[in-house]
Amino acid sequence: MRFVTISDIEAAAERVRGTAVHTPLLRQHWAPGQLWLKPESLQPIGAFKIRGAYNAIAALGENERTRGVVAYSSGNHAQAVAYSAKAFGVPAVIVVPDSAPRLKVNATREWGAEVVEVPFADQAPVAAQLARERGLTLVPPFDHPDVIAGQGTAGLEIAADLPEVDTVLVPVSGGGFASGVGIAVKQRCPAAKVYGVEPELAADAEESLREGRRVEWPMADRARTIADGQRAQPSDLTFAHLQKVLDGIITVSEDEIRRTVRTLALRSRLVVEPSGATAPAAYLHHTSELPGGRTVAIVSGGNLDPALLTELLA
Amino acid sequence: MRFVTISDIEAAAERVRGTAVHTPLLRQHWAPGQLWLKPESLQPIGAFKIRGAYNAIAALGENERTRGVVAYSSGNHAQAVAYSAKAFGVPAVIVVPDSAPRLKVNATREWGAEVVEVPFADQAPVAAQLARERGLTLVPPFDHPDVIAGQGTAGLEIAADLPEVDTVLVPVSGGGFASGVGIAVKQRCPAAKVYGVEPELAADAEESLREGRRVEWPMADRARTIADGQRAQPSDLTFAHLQKVLDGIITVSEDEIRRTVRTLALRSRLVVEPSGATAPAAYLHHTSELPGGRTVAIVSGGNLDPALLTELLA
């Protein structure tokens, strides 16, 4: 297994420049202590996923890329691959679970991708089959060094904008984002602590890190959380990275997630999806479990159905 | 009358660095044409006003500043002066109209300022009296070269981030923001057009520019718009600047403002106050009145009462 290096992430930063937004760090004076948010919700597709997907497609050979790409995803990665393929002018097929939020599925179609809806468990095999049949390259949501390196560019930005950062909070689902951000932050700011954040109802990575081995949670369990972007679980590759770079994982309750979506709208003026609220929720509701100091909580995305937004604001 | 120069704005940019956020330009792919938003709603106090207020206070002599500052404002300028005074550790007294939104008044108090509530028409005389009695320096909301220069730093950022910009849309109230942004953009990008945007119900600057002289609208008329940050009217100083830098003024309806607040929440993931939505509303609903091309619409602020937000989202 090859670990992603800071050089990989620096190369990714060159590739995604002009496509991914260098999101600002926003000091939150209303919160106790010293909190900055990094609003990845403001990326072109509304989530950090653009970084990894674009980097992975940019890193392909010309011939491979021209044949097109295929991906499977419950939401934001689908949009990220569709967007990036369009940017390169190559075809994209996206396999989505039929349970995916309509907003994310529709947005994927708007980027011009072909969308194939299948039962949740069939996503990976159907994507693999499409790759074989049509000569497409699979862009996985997290289980790939180029994806991890792309996500890590957010960590480089944190280190550049707040070199004296003490603590970084990053959501964990498949673990690609936390892996990449962790590598970048630990390399550039060796004294900083990096904590993953999971919903209590999908805390497989937390249990896995505690046990020192990958523990599988049934999908039916993980599907309970409102944070629909955090229902995946790490692969061998990302788990090995998480073991190396995370100082711990904080778990947050559904109520904490919901309240934080509301707080971020009213105090931070950001529309955030439930998965995007988990890292700030950890800061606001689990202070005693964290080292404190200058803390950056990454807001991973902002794609949520309008009905859910009005419900959470009420 | 001394016109604000690009050097004044460059000096202001040095002063506000580290206090005002360099807000990113966010490409809006869902909108027709080529639209970028500049989300000044993400500034520490939720509006561009931090730029002018901080610059004006930073430009004071040490002795003057130490005695403290006084300001009058219906909202965001109040917070900006309170915030900036706190940053310098000097006292601030803010005179607010008793009709001001509670959210903005409370936020001003949270920054440690002394708040004095008076009837709308008494704001300026009461502030002047406090300045005399207590030796405070008045920081006006727009009628001052240092305030205009500070607001102009947003224009410098646009020119740096999108040098090939064709059109800039900036809201007009007292005219300080549009003056500063206009000077910076026209100097750095001479081919770019700069349009002001006003609510139809408070379109005094539009009428004034058309007539070639300052036309006063009764406050009772201007108070009708939901865009509570756009109820002021230009001074001689700002009107002279607007005459020089604006290529025109677009007026938007109340319905267009309301719909745009909703659209920006759902498509741009930004919580925006009505005044912050007028420039994007001009882009979305008055296309034929604009030259088109690469267009930046500035979102001036994001402070609105929670009840209004839920009403506009419903």
From TrEMBL, chains A, B:
The species this protein was found in: Amycolatopsis jiangsuensis
Family: Belongs to the serine/threonine dehydratase family.
Catalytic reaction list: L-threonine = 2-oxobutanoate + NH4(+)
Protein's UniProt keywords contain Lyase: yes
GO biological processes: isoleucine biosynthetic process; L-serine catabolic process; L-threonine catabolic process
Protein name from the UniProt record: threonine ammonia-lyase
The enzyme's E.C. designation: 4.3.1.19
Keyword Nucleotide-binding: no
Biological role: Catalyzes the anaerobic formation of alpha-ketobutyrate and ammonia from threonine in a two-step reaction. The first step involved a dehydration of threonine and a production of enamine intermediates (aminocrotonate), which tautomerizes to its imine form (iminobutyrate). Both intermediates are unstable and short-lived. The second step is the nonenzymatic hydrolysis of the enamine/imine intermediates to form 2-ketobutyrate and free ammonia. In the low water environment of the cell, the second step is accelerated by RidA.
Keywords: Lyase, Pyridoxal phosphate
SUPFAM superfamilies cross-referenced by the UniProt entry: Tryptophan synthase beta subunit-like PLP-dependent enzymes (SSF53686)
Domain Tryptophan synthase beta chain-like PALP: 23-301
The protein's required cofactors: pyridoxal 5'-phosphate
Gene Ontology MF, one: threonine deaminase activity
Pfam families reported for this sequence: PALP (PF00291)
